[in-house]
Amino acid sequence: MIKEFEFGSTSSIVNSSQMCAQKIVEYVCCQDGGCCECCLNGKKQKLTKSDIQHSFRHSNSRLDSTSSYAESYRSFRDRVESDSATSRTDSVSSASQISGDYRKGMNTPIIDMKPIEFWAANRESVQPRQGRRRLPSETEISIENFQRDLYEVDEDSEPCLTDEEKLAKFQLGQIHIGLQYEVSTKVLVVKVIESKDLPPPYCLDENKQDLAHSNPYCKVCLLPDQKNSQQTSVQRKTQSPTWNEYFMFEIPFHEAQMRTLEILIKDFDRFSRHCIIGQVYLPLANINLIKGGHMWKPLMPSTKERQDLGEILLSLNYLPSAGRLNIDVIKAKQLLQTDMIGGSDPFVKVTMVHFEKPIKTKKTTCKKNTIDPVFNESVSFNVTPQQLENTSIVITVWDYNSKSRDDFVGRVVIGKYGTGPHEFTHWNRMLNSHRSPVAQWHSLRTRQECDQVSPASIAVP
């Protein structure tokens, strides 16, 4: 449609130009005395200047009517390639040559205009092909470029040892467990029955009060979820404890088959850290959980000594207009058991420290006979925005004793002198969201670990 309209406009312009030129010729001929057809036929007509001006006005009106359409395609014609530009240049030069020849005495001029090739503007540009990827040569490949640790065999895992060989090699005793998956309730039931032939306490810990007998208990979890672990009661002074305790894990059957059962047997010591006697890793993919059954498994040495002091959930909220810092102690889980019978009686102390000076201390109520307490209590401190930059909050979990000194469970420091990257992250989130509570779980640390990295922890007894 665009091409047809362009040619139609061009032909109208040519006809108007021819009519105008014909009027000029007739006017000149009639003035000279009759050399044109109108004089030879005896019908000589006298042309006046008004007739010629009327012809020019008619031609100009025709040209003006097409000018608006020509402007709409001006941007389109600017993108035409060099061959179209050359054709238009030739057309203009031929038109100028015709007008010069006409002044020399030629008759009706003929305007030769070449058509514009619009297809050139829509021509797609072809991208050059990218070169082939260069492969490294044999001289560039060296054995030093390989990561050797990815191909080394972990000798500690001992994947080829049988249960009898593990028992004879490590001599850490055995544990008797039972497994059963309840399809109707989608619950995996783990029964910790008993253990036997546990080794006596190691002499590496000088603070051990009794080196002849252990106080064993078990922690059970489904890896990789170590946070939702459960533990048995503590059996006093025995190397062959009996528990007969059940633990429930709500989990779909297809997901249970992808988990690994981890059982840690620990030696409880009130006056020292709880060392790990042995551990069992049992992949559930090779076990018929629907049928279930009981089995004896040898204990393996612990890969690393872990200090599981528990976790605490805290919420921080700062109100700058009121100058008040609110700390919500929500709950804790899997706290270190400090009482051999019946769990612990935990409570939390919250201390505000400005630089390295304790300002004020507040504490929550005591929760009886539990290692998974729920507090849902809030404490507040008056802190100006200027003081907030140099303020630290020391959170300490204690076990209440009525007849003796309270037992230290764990600590975490949040603020200027935080005890780790998670604590700094929680504090910065609170600073960036005033008037909005920000909650986060924190892993408790020992007093020695906190004192090594935080001056605020040293200032709090």
What does this structure look like?
It is a single chain. The protein has 461 residues and is of the alpha+beta class. It is 27% helix and 29% strand. It has 11 helices and 16 strands. The protein has helices at 2-32, 37-40, 49-72, 74-78, 82-103, 163-170, 253-256, 385-388, 421-432, 447-453, 455-459; strands at residues 174-182, 187-196, 216-223, 225-231, 242-250, 260-267, 275-283, 293-298, 311-319, 324-333, 346-354, 357-363, 374-382, 391-399, 407-415, 438-443. The strands form 4 sheets. Strands 5-2-1-8 form a 4-stranded antiparallel beta sheet. It has a 4-stranded antiparallel beta sheet with strand order 4-3-6-7, with no helix packed on it. It has a 4-stranded antiparallel beta sheet with strand order 13-10-9-16, covered by helices on one side. Strand 11 and strand 12 (357-363) form a beta hairpin. Helix 1 packs antiparallel against helix 3. It is flat and about 135 Å long. The two termini are 91 Å apart. Residues 1-8, 39-47 and 151-158 have low confidence and may be disordered.
Gist of the model:
With about 450 residues, the protein is of the alpha+beta class. Helices cover about 25% and strands about 30% of the residues.
SS content category: alpha+beta
User: Which stretches are low in confidence, meaning pLDDT under 50 for 5 or more residues running?
Assistant: 1-8, 39-47, 151-158
Count of individual beta strands: 16
Q: Largest sheet at a glance?
A: 4 strands, antiparallel
The whole-number mean of residue pLDDT values reads 76
End-to-end Cα distance: 91 Å
Q: Tell me, what's the shape?
A: flat
Instruction: Determine the fraction of residues in helical runs and give it as a percent range.
Output: 25-40%
